[in-house]
Amino acid sequence: MNADRRTRARTAADRQRRSRPRAAPATQARSRTTLTRLGSRRSLKLLRRQEGCEPMHDEMTIGARLRTLRRWRGMSLAQLAGLSGLSKGFLSKIENGKAALGRRSHISAIATALRISEADLIGGPHLTADPVRAAPHATVPAVRAALMTNSLTAPAADHARPLAELVAEMGRIDRSEYKHIEVGQKLPALIDELHVHACAPTDEPAYRLALETLVEAFQAATFTSKDLGHGDLAHVAAMRAAEVAAILDDPVVTGKAASLRIHTMPTTARDVALTAAEHAANALEPHVHDDLGVQVLGMLTLAASMTATVIYDYDRAEHWMRQADEQATRVPDTPGLNWGAFSKTNVGVWKVALATERGASSGDLLGLAKNVDEAKLEPRRGRHATFLADVGRGLARDKRTHKDAAGWLLRAEEVAPHKIRNSAAVGETVATLVRQTQGASLGRELRGLAARMGIPH
């Protein structure tokens, strides 16, 4: 009798064990636990922010985010290295904050291997207590509404200022020293009112002028949104420009719109972006008859050179850079006046950007930087700041030039604080410099920059 009871008990226990759900694999379980903890921490941070107890910023570094995403995918470092083409040691350094993830090619390779977007890896836009950094973000909702509520058959507004006044205002926005804030404050109403003129033009010239000015407005919206981390919104603006360009059927305007679309393509589609840039440049070249045409062609050429660099096709990159050098001799060296700032000076700026992307030595990078006349960049604060930051990011890879790197980054912030403090690439470099120099005397200035960017220091 007792034996029968014991047998029945064992049988019931076996059935109960078999009915239990299987435990997830160890890696998957750890990944889920990690993500749950991250979610809990973020919820707690959000609650504290709402209560005014904590500044609004994401303290998660790109390295920490990479580790979380890699584990979420159930990949080892060795597996990620094999899929991305980057070394296991380098990936480990990124995760541990000993190396910055700043090259577009590296970001693209990792995002492709993990099957995620660039924003998943580097993080999206977020706010800090710093008003200079936060202020531009407050203007994004109005820009978004203007881009998405207007159409070329139904404007969102019912009245508009004179077209000549709107064209003049677009010119002022384009020349604004603090472009992000200026765009956010002035651009939404400008887009609304230009649609009014496009939908009910007084004549054909007025119709075309309204559409041409809309393309310039969409360009401003594209790069401001992109700089602030709103990549999808930037793409919406670029596609609106393409919509207008198709109506105008002008090769130069089509080239402008193509340039915007290329710059907003996903990081994981660089080969498609290169094909698009080369096609756009080749299509425009036979129709170039004035300075504006050369400037638009030049910016497409530079985009092709950069995109080829990102996919490691350095021969094609050099080919397109030689083309840009030749084109720059055909227009005045006035980046402040030229479309897209295309000029000899801006070509020099792009050469620095390409060298930083390729991982050039500090000596080579500084040699290229010396060829850039910074005085000519003064009217283009955003472009000037990007140049300074690219030099700083490149120098930061070499321990021997850490101090010089900090100096260039601080100069970049001084030129355009709103742009630099919102730059994910600069933020990653600053965070890595701070971690690598713990206990070292790198100066209060760098740690001050880290504080203003919401980076733990």
Automatic annotation (TrEMBL):
InterPro entries: Cro/C1-type_HTH, Lambda_DNA-bd_dom_sf, TransReg_Diox_bact_type. One of its GO terms (molecular function) is DNA binding. Residues 1-32 are annotated as: Disordered. Residues 1-16 have a biased composition (Basic and acidic residues). Residues 22-32 have a biased composition (Low complexity). Residues 66-121 form the HTH cro/C1-type domain. One of its GO terms (cellular component) is cytosol. The keyword DNA-binding applies. It holds the Pfam family HTH_31. This is Helix-turn-helix domain-containing protein. The lineage of its organism: Bacteria, Bacillati, Actinomycetota, Actinomycetes, Streptosporangiales.
